[in-house]
Amino acid sequence: MKRATDLFYRALLLRCPNCGSGPIFLSWFKLATNCPGCGLKFERDEGYFLGGMAFNLTIGEAIPVIAVGLAWYFTRPNTPWQLLQYGWIASAVVLPLLFFPHSRTFWLALDLLFNPAEVREYNRPERSNGRPH
User: What is the reported pTM?
Assistant: First the structure.
């Protein structure tokens, strides 16, 4: 349980879920290739972050739907339909953009929880021993 907590806490902070190093994002939408601390390759397989994109879409669309349902429930019979319509559309566009980096780190944390990194997934630079090659 401690490992799961550590992985997801690091992901929440937008750090490497594996070791906690960071920053791992070069910009809001650009993840580094490898962790600056442990060298873990973030894209573990081709198309790796498709699950993260699905996670992002699910969260980014579920929250507005739930919010509209709650707003309807608590404001009926005088529901402000036009406000709900525009608010729903705006949040359905904005939330996936805001949640994008977290969806990637959460997906990586979830994968590392069930499929820990193997030695071949690290890209550590060779350390020089001070002698010429």
Answer: 0.81
